[in-house]
Amino acid sequence: MKRLVRSLKESLMLIKNKDFHQLKIKTKRLFLGMHFKDGLIYHLLVYALLLSFGYIYLYPMLFMVTNSFMTVEDIIDIGVRWVPSQLNIENYQLVIQEINYPKALLQGLYLAAVPSLMATMSSAIIGYGFARFNFPLKKLMFVLMIMTFIVPPQITMLSMFRMYSRYELLGSILAFVFPAVLGQGLNGALFILIFYQFFRMIPKSLEESAQLDGASSFKIFTRIALPLAIPSIIIVFLFSFVWYYNETYLAGLYLSGSELLTLPLRIDQLINGYVGIYQGNERAMQLMQAVKLAGNVLTLLPLLIIYFFTQRYFVESIDRTGITGE
Amino acid sequence: MPKTEKSGRTLKSMLVNNFIYRREIHQIVLFSFWKIKITNKRRQSLIGLSFVLLWIVGYLVFALYPMGHSLYLSFFKVRMDGSSLQLLYHGIENYKAAFLIDERFVDMLLQYVLQTAMNVPITIVFALVIAMLINQDIKGKGIWRTIFFLPVIIISGPVIQELLNQGATTLPSIQEYRLIGMILDNLNPALAAPIQALFDRILLVLWFAGIQILIFLAGLQKIDKEIYEASMIDGAGPWESFWKITLPSLMPLISVTIIYTVVSMSVFSLNEVIIYIRNVMRGESTVGTVINGMGYSAALAWIYFLVMSLLIIIFIGLINIRKRSKS
Q: Can you give the residue range of the structural domain that contains B213?
């Protein structure tokens, strides 16, 4: 901005002095810059693009938040689009009451936190094993591990479902904890890869000196490697948490019909119940849309809060997977 | 107490010094017969294996067994009999049925292939553009990043389903622009339809680009700034330096993002095909009893997986062909 004002002042001076040749050069500088990238046109272009992309990304959020505050009249009224005529929190009250929000939220957090904690621990151990030791068939195992990322859950879910129902694990959090403990949780391969990459980056001499002092491999892992890996641990936990929290496909299969439900599933259930009751009632269906959106806002709120505080870890994360090549 | 210490020592010595397993200085003796030398390499690999043991067990139980089992089931007609399964050998009937009888599945699969083939390049191009934009020296970097990484945490099935239903994923303002409407009207319908579809779905596609933006951003930050400076001195503009420096250095990442995009789109919980597979598995499909049940759904899942892998291979192949013809 300062530069812009200054160059404007300069050009005014030039006009006063009738130095049109200089003026021409100056304007060209202003718009195109020394090498286009520092010119005004380029900057305008960049910010225009950023704004339009930002709009695209924020639009659903804005839509969700504003519509969730609307009354039936507002939804039907085409004139009311962005600003509800009154701040109506009835939709929220309804959802909070109906699903017993505090309890449902705690359940959702519990369903996400426990498996992610397990997945974080197991992937740290496995990643360390792959990164630090040589053993027969290591390459093959590594390839197989990466392959598991591509195999869709539809292939394995059938047998898993059978297995779980045989051991009566359906409807219990254990259905998610067991795979997580064994490094096969949601996107488990990715997390192992993150730790693998990180542990390979730690200088080996640190561990060798501990080994000379007589520490066992397990001790080296817990006392030296793990404390160094805290940033990776946070990243893996966060991603795992977010993915488990949002999971609906497998959760719908393993948990459906039970008391334990993830938050998105619970809201889905609530709405489906209402749709069943008010089928055909136009007005109620309209209101339901707003209620659904309120439910979605309530689902996303905890994630947004977490994201707000831990943003920088998400940004750092990819560096640690090492897929960018080290 | 000295007594327990002593008994502890004897227990320990019993564990490492008995008939079955005896530990000597440089070797382990099993059954007083097999002698295994303890080398550093062997010790290392044993410790390594014990770290990875968790994964090995997990792979066998939660990956290899279910995969093998479902492949096996896909060749059978499976009937639920109480809690046990009744298997009836069916040969490749299940696979045949998927293509010949089940019109819905073929239709959905084609839709899926078309959509993925279209969405993946779009996602990657947009991710690249956005990553390059926020990699620059811009005002409010933190705010922009916060906005563009939102999809990373909000890829949640029901929420997106809701937004889809309510039309929040199509930008109303784009449709209202007369100009775009006019352009579309004057185009050949074969050309206009995909463009229209693109506008309809641009939001959803962009919302898939969260992780990809992260990957590209990390890649961009790894490129040495001096290369750009050197090229600038040699008279290269931003256009040339993009094609000659930025894109080639990001090439390996593009393959990674393609794999990630195809996988995440294919297993996304709103994907019609996977919902259909789940419904078939639970016996909720409406096609009829002939083609229903677990065996059939296993066959469907494997077909789907093969198609998905094929898509990945084709994409990666295309990228590599371009690379080779260029050099």
A: 96-155+208-326
Closest residue in chain B to residue A158, using alpha carbons only: B70
Q: Does B47 touch chain A (CB under 8 A)?
A: yes
Asked if B51 and A125 come within 8 Å (Cβ–Cβ), the reply is yes
Full domain range(s) for residue A285: 94-321
> Do B142 and B263 belong to one domain?
yes
Which of the residues A135, A145, A194 would you substitute to probe the B interface, choosing the one with the greatest number of B C-beta atoms within 10 Å? A135
B150 contacts on A by Cβ (under 8 Å):
57-58, 61, 307
Quick check: is B67 in a domain? no
Question: Number of folded domains in chain B?
Answer: 2
| Alpha helices, DSSP H, located in chain A | 2-16, 20-32, 40-68, 72-76, 90-98, 101-132, 138-150, 153-166, 174-181, 188-201, 204-212, 217-220, 226-228, 230-246, 249-255, 263-277, 282-321
Which positions in chain B touch A35 (Cβ < 8 Å)? 232, 237-238
Over residues B74-113, the pLDDT tens digits come to 888 777 666 666 777 777 777 887 788 777 888 888 888 8
Number of domains in chain A: 2
Please check whether residues A160 and A28 belong to one and the same domain. no
CA angle A217, A218, A219 (to 5 degrees): 90
ipTM of the complex: 0.77
pLDDT range class, residue B285, cuts 50, 70, 90 = low
Is residue B51 in a domain?
A: no
Quick one: A153 and A22 in the same domain? Answer: no
Looking at CA atoms only, how far is residue B61 from chain A in angstroms? Answer: 9
